[in-house]
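Long-time lurker, finally posting.

We've been working with RNA-dependent RNA polymerase (Meloidogyne enterolobii) and I want a structural starting point before designing mutants. I don't trust myself to interpret raw outputs, so I'm hoping someone here can both generate the structure tokens and explain anything notable. Sequence follows.
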Amino acid sequence: MSLQMLGFDFIGGPNSNGEHYTISDGCGCMSMAAARKVAEEMELDPMNPPSCIQFRYAGYKGVLSINPNLDAAKKCFDKLHKEKSEKETRESYMAVDFYFRPSQKKFEIQEEEERLCRFEVVKYSAPVPLFLNKPLINILDQVSKLHSVESYERICKRLHMLLDKHIFSLCSTLTDELRARKRLSELPRYVEYDMLDAINFTQEPFFRLVLRAAGRVSLFKLRQKLAIAIPYQLGRVMFGIVDETDSLQYGQIFVQYSNEMAAFNHGKANKRHFGKKIIVTGPVLISKNPAIVGGDVRMFEAIDVPALHHLVDVLVFPRFGPRPHPDEMAGSDLDGDEYGVIWDPELAFNKNEPPADYTPVIYNEEAGDSFEHDDFQDKMAGFFVNYLKHDSIGRIANAHLACSDLYGIKAKVCGNIALKHQRAVDFPKTGKHSAPLEYNWKGSDPPERFERAPDFMEKESSEPQYHSSRLNGQLHRRVSELSDFLSSVIVQESTNLPDPDEMLLSNDGHDAYLVKAQTDYNLYSYRIKRLMDEYGIQCEGELFSSSYSVLRNRISDRETDDMSFFNTTYVIGQRLWEIGRLTRKQFFASAGGKIEKLTDARGICVDPSEKLRLLSRAYYTIAYYASKRQYLSFPWVACWDVLDKVKRTTILKRGVTNLAIDPFADRLLSHIKLFVRKYEAKLKEFRERVFQIDFEGPEEEYERKCFLRRYAERYLGLDILLFFCSEWGQKQKLFELSPIREEHLCLFVVGIELSRGSFYETPKDWSNSPSSPSADISSSLGRRFFMFLEAMASLQSNRKEIFDFRHFGLEYQHFFNNGEWRVLQQVALDTYLHLVFSDQFDVVLPSTVEKENFSVKEEILEGSCFQLELPSTTVNDNFVEYYKLLEVLCKESGCERIMMRCHPRYRIWRRRLVPNGEFPRAMRILVTSWGKKQAIGQLRQLLAIKPQMDLSADHRLAVRIIPEVTLELFNELLDREKVNWAMEYQFNGINQIEEVEESSENAEEEEEIVEYYDDSE
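Top reply, 14 upvotes:
Generated this for you. Predicted structure of RNA-dependent RNA polymerase:
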């Protein structure tokens, strides 16, 4: 670190305090030579160093980007001044390796102490995927609606499509070999997945366990945060740096990204490998967490600058302009802040909203009391305690999200919360906490502390919840239905796994190897169990996919928002890597050799001996047939390369030629063929019913049969696919629950094939002659049926209101609205997910067994408690027909039992009257239900309240009508049973309490008695 200098910052215009902005705040630069040395120290590829590193060194903090001009200056200086190397002379030439800026200097340090300081790398630039979140989706939704209807519809449709893409890409890793291999290669490589050529990842139990855990945790995060993945060709997360070449003008940026994603790998042998580098040009949308106001998400113009081609996977901002672009987005800077960069044209805004003013507040206070050095630790501890007491950024962020959803992002209350949010963000730096949130109404301005929460925040137990019609609510409800369904399908992570590969199991006569393998397995299982128990890791799949639903003993509760690599996940990965290293070393030692001599320079055993092969089989057998808890990772961590060679050799010896390229589709095809062979008579009846033309029948039926017969004759095997789909529809009661009939389902199947391009349009005059083209699709029926389910399950993302068959060439017009085909979409989605995650075909498909004994009896569950609001007049004047209402709700929802009761904090006799002596306008009740998961969900949907979300509406009026809407809903439910909202008792004041208490005693103090309350405080 001898070649360094402190340079100068780029300065912008004045802020609202009159002080000038620092455009290069926190961003310095380094030479290419220095970057390569740093990469080598970090065991990365020195010929391909990171373009930017986040660092800490001797009082400096921030980022350093590569600047080749420093290398050129050093070369020029060394050539002209071979004998003169004074520091001042080098600085005048900028002939240094590290160029720091004053904005990076956070505290002074003695010169002699600086020599002892180490250069610490916190993080480096790399390809990082981008995920959306609820605040960002809220901004995309509401700002686009302010711009234009076209922009709003475009962005909403795109986000629904991205959600489907995210979900189906997760599912495809369990059904498609290529996608499974690609997904595993993106995970930490404790096993070299790319080199396992003979293994089917979707059928091997351990790899399927890893893939399923990664998918399940991803869906869990999807429900919790709406973390929808942006395709990595359309968006990334990048460090922000400043343009050192003066090439970019105000409003322009430079973005170049690596085409391939690089997973973070452990171990000395792993390097960062990048594929093709692509430069982005055109409109780009950029945001910075935490983004809460409309101006925090901005549009820029990306251009190609040859002088910046050495920078990859970073976002380059211009050095010109009155205000730094990073400061316009959540008041960020360039000292290590990461930005979400999206160049998807479907998510672009029409224009930018005005940026918020994030100028820090100046506090005119006198200097604090001086203290001795020995008191420093106590003072620091006191500040930390104060920070914990006033750290309210989470509550403020939730308040802004809830208020902006109900009242609109432009509402005055949201602006006030945004200011408090910024002060809360700066609290660790300034030591000045933000003012608490307001709890009371001020005229027509609602309180900052939200009184009602949208359903996507899932706070039903603490606040009344309403049905949000905004984009966050739409996406959340789709994900919730999916998550609830999967929780009933996947009971345990290790259940319903495929059988072990018999080619890798030990043969008889190798007991000595099994004994040795058992000893090594016991040691391995002890180490893995200890690691999992220490951090509360749910299953082995989560451990090896680094996808954790819950973790104990975290380094920090907020480390998921920390930019550092060195978090709990990193620590677990390092320990797991060490366990794998020891286990692999033990494997070769057990075979009588050393790993260094039996493997090549890459650490791979290319030509294993017979002893190694037999021992690897024993490892596999012991792991998969352990008497106690199974750790399926044991053989793959220890000897993945030897197992691959064993299977290759076995395949060659047996002369196997029909290797499964698509195992999942092959299993599905076998199921279809077995079913058709068993029910040939039904197939014959189906052909007569669907394809046999009646010339005297209705014209519509004639056209339909001609259409289906034409395609069935051209594509051999289509009749079997249509027959199987028809039987599937009958099993799912599709024809009973919707107006869709058998012939319509057949049209859907053909239509999906046409839209995918796998079928060609067949003219009416086409005939099955020797010269006419035809195709045999019998061998691909399994994959085609699965693709049909996926296509129908994703219909909702297309936001279609009507689905018609006119584009099929039919003369008659038959169409379905979204309420009619929604049933088909739902049963297709349920079947699709069941096939992907459960591997039990007979449960959801037409069964090949005489007596179907596959229906799983759902257990009765207790639903989470939620709150409703009712007018206070309901209790002031009359007594509700409580039991009749519960009976109606149970009947409508399918629940076994429903209970409504007062919240313990809000009993009437514990509350004061409002100033005019009347009871408050609204009261709240708690609702608890028991029943099947689907019934509980139906009850929530039945009682969902949809308030008016008009930006120009009176906020107080919009809130006051919510209790009236709930009462009206109850009236409608009772009217269905021809029961009026009859009020049987007239009572008020203390008499109300006495009558309720008396009825409660007669009912043996059952909790079902309705106790009403208000929320005036």
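Before you design anything, note these points.
Residues 511-535 form the longest helix (25 residues).
The radius of gyration is 33 Å.
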